[in-house]
Write a structure and sequence with these properties.
Number of domains: 1
Shape: globular
CATH class: Alpha Beta
Number of helices: 9
Helix content: 40-55%
CATH topology: TIM Barrel
Order of helices and strands: HEHEHEHEHEHEHEHEH
Low-confidence stretches: none
Number of strands: 8
Strand order of the largest sheet: 7-6-5-4-3-2-1-8
Mean pLDDT: 94
Distance between the termini: 21 Å
CATH architecture: Alpha-Beta Barrel
């Protein structure tokens, strides 16, 4: 068994425990391999070892690895900050764009999707920690963005995504995860066309078990799968 497969087995074990602690089954949690800077061959190994999806942070890197058929056998997600001038390049290429955070991106992605004759699945990224240097809509802006998305052809919102502030204090991490879950619940109560709160994507290598216990059902794991960059 290669080391990537061994790492995925360990991550799966931790997911199983955290899911049980939150009253769910491991199958309720989607494991996304965060493949930033990883080679196409390593991505293929992760897919062969059974990750549920692969996530990329950079459009150029995604495009290069896509041309090498790196993602065959797994859904492809975009999980990094998405610049408006590059967004059109991944519409229809990614199964899910997790980092949509503005009306401008909603409109741009919708127009491109319509021109291609498809509907693009997205998540709305929320800056739950209100960090000035981090992307994401503020919590109080989320309802307005969902309202716009519901009126935009070519867009299908499947839930929310967040990258909470890094905290050495695990209880502080849990505060942000709990706040994000509450926002997810609140948005789930609203009825919009083309919006269904199915996915809450939060939790990375250093925090995914806490995120799952707080209600996350999609985790984005990089170093715990591929090792430190």
């Amino acid at each position: 068994m290669n080391s990537i497969a061994e790492n995925i087995k360990r991550v799966r074990g931790a997911i199983e425990v955290a899911a049980a602690e939150s009253g769910r089954s491991p199958g309720d949690i989607t494991l996304v391999a965060a493949a930033k800077t990883q080679s196409a061959e390593k991505v293929r190994l992760a897919i062969a070892a059974g990750v549920d999806a692969v996530g990329e942070n950079r459009v150029q890197e995604l495009t290069e690895k896509h041309s090498q058929d790196a993602y065959s056998g797994a859904p492809l997600h975009f999980i990094g900050h998405l610049q408006s001038n590059k967004a059109a390049r991944i519409v229809g290429v990614c199964d899910l764009i997790e980092s949509v955070d503005s009306p401008a991106l909603i409109s741009l992605i919708g127009r491109k999707a319509v021109s291609l004759g498809l509907v693009q699945n997205v998540l709305i990224e929320v800056n739950i920690g209100r960090e000035t240097r981090k992307a994401g809509a503020l919590a109080e802006e989320t309802a307005g963005i969902l309202e716009l998305a519901s009126q935009t052809k070519g867009i299908n919102v499947l839930g929310l995504m967040a990258i909470p502030p890094f905290c050495e204090d695990s209880e502080r991490n849990c505060y942000y995860f709990d706040a994000m879950f509450q926002l997810f619940v609140d948005m789930s109560k609203k009825k919009y066309d083309n919006v269904s709160m199915q996915l809450l994507s939060m939790g990375m290598s250093d925090s995914f078990t806490s995120a799952i216990r707080a209600g996350s059902n999609m985790v984005r794991i990089g170093s715990a799968i591929f090792g430190e960059r």
